[in-house]
Amino acid sequence: MSIKSVAKMAGVSIATVSRYFNKPDLLKKQTRDKVEKAIAALNYQPNTLAQNFRRGKSGLIVIVVYNIGNPLYENFTQAITPIAQSKGYDILIKETNRKNLDIKYYQDMLSSKQADGLIVMIDLPKLDGKTHFMLANLPIVFIKEERPANDDLPHYIGFDNYEAAETAAEHLINLGHKNIVCISSEENNTACLNRQSGFIFAIQKAKLLHERVITVRDNAEAIEEVVNSILQMEPKITAIFCTRDDLAIEVLSVLKQMNIEVPKRISVIGFNNIRYAAKTHPPLTTIEQPFAEITQQAIKVLCEKIENLPQTNDTEDIQNSTSTFNHRLIIRSSTASPLI
Amino acid sequence: MSIKSVAKMAGVSIATVSRYFNKPDLLKKQTRDKVEKAIAALNYQPNTLAQNFRRGKSGLIVIVVYNIGNPLYENFTQAITPIAQSKGYDILIKETNRKNLDIKYYQDMLSSKQADGLIVMIDLPKLDGKTHFMLANLPIVFIKEERPANDDLPHYIGFDNYEAAETAAEHLINLGHKNIVCISSEENNTACLNRQSGFIFAIQKAKLLHERVITVRDNAEAIEEVVNSILQMEPKITAIFCTRDDLAIEVLSVLKQMNIEVPKRISVIGFNNIRYAAKTHPPLTTIEQPFAEITQQAIKVLCEKIENLPQTNDTEDIQNSTSTFNHRLIIRSSTASPLI
DNA sequence: TTGAAAGCGGTACCAC
DNA sequence: GTGGTACCGCTTTCAA
Predict the structure, then answer these.
(1) What is the pTM of this model?
(2) Quick one: which residue's CA is nearest to C3's C1'?
(3) Which of A203, A304, B31, B146 is 20 to 30 Å apart from B309, CA to CA?
(4) Smallest Cα–Cα separation from A155: which of A290, A293, A304, A272?
């Protein structure tokens, strides 16, 4: 079943059939009808493999993730897909289950034409000058929760965790909280580290005393222990800022088990607005990152890279545009003014 | 950068270079070395697009999901990927964000050769005879929590919720419980319905009286009410079987709030072994479905379909093999013998 | 053990 | 507007 059979059946040349798909306007209505009928009769579908080969493009943008279990990803994929499709690319997700993939991995995917472009959501190992340059010339865009601190990765689209954390802290401060604790993940995650810094800065700016940050392993027992100790602190802690929603959710769950009322006794705010954040009891106040905008930007940059790679080696404008996205405070019921 | 340049550089024909990749044993060591050197010098990578085209295969199996946010998926993808890779397929995930996709959608993906095979984790609309037949002849395997009740979908790999629920009930019965209640979700979910049936069957088989099933809305208040009423039943209920872990987790949480000791006063067993099941107090006894085995089977079936489609139109053996997977009872501390 | 060459199914240029 | 045809990069048969 190829273009040939269609051509034969319609009594035209294969060139005409090809045109039917690619430049239908060039065909006389009459011819178009003939071709159309033959296609329908044979139930013909162009062979994508042949098309891709001939065009030298796969028409694919692959999103590379470590593990799809991360609930954050869906925010991105949801936003990316329609935009990519409108630009003629299909989006597929590749789960690597490996951290710190070598750049060669991405290079191979691209040079072997498995994908026209990559959106990578995994950390890269440190880059030397050469690989850095290489990367700038590959159709890859990185989206990470945070730009690596000491490294100006080209085409890096990221969040401003620092400012966003400031917003979260200020929300609590504006509600009247004076004694706030930050619970953060123990793993050495730049995003969380920056949120911690943002938190501390806001506390200091407000001239409050408590700028304590507690890091915790990511399991229920550890979190229970931490919450317990927080409840017993003096002066009395009235609010907790968690640097990730899942931490906040665990905290909420522990507090519930202990019959501690939220937000009456203590307010809790999270970070990221993952799907489950709206479903806690009480629903979690949190910070939402501008996924749609970031994504839009990422795709735009990527498509430009795919099309213009030979020319554009300067990426200044693109890099600079990353810092303009605005996070959003989502106020639900887990935060309120403290009882005096 | 093609096979041609390599051939030229190595002073051999393109056929030889091709053989270097596909049947290296056929080459004289000396020739192999020459080719190898040229490849390294040019940093050559075969063009996957051309390979796929020539071979008529994409080398891809696509997992079609509705939305990657579902935490169940990671269990599957993790298990599928290594197996598929060992069979020469790469796994990519396609998020559709659309329910009830028409069969045509899958057909198109396959006939246009975007994928060699599909693992579909979305519900299908009801099938008429023709589409049913069509489906049997396509390299697609369906994995869902439950096979649709009134529909024998071909190549459907599912769980045996009925038997697994029986196992759960029998665990309680063997511990000596005589008065057991089943709490199930109010939503009309086939998986849960079958678990209810399995429960009832086990109770009847053991000639116990209490085969009561209580369905409940999925919120904390409703569950609290139900638990309350269960505690007051006569004869005294000593065990609860929940058809989903999240229900069990809520039940546990309510019991804790009421200072009811688990499993001393009452045993609780869940279903699915979700990630949080190990983290309750006490840790939840539950049933684990055999993701790895199911997945292995799905891939095996799919690869067979991909390879043998023209011949195998009878699928009996494959369909029958779905029921052989063994669930696993995971005994933690939320179940024990009743106090007499 | 190697090379020559046909051809996979399209696209797009050039002629008419 | 339409047809003829070279060609994309690779695999594979056949012959040497």
Answers:
(1) 0.78
(2) B13
(3) B146
(4) A304
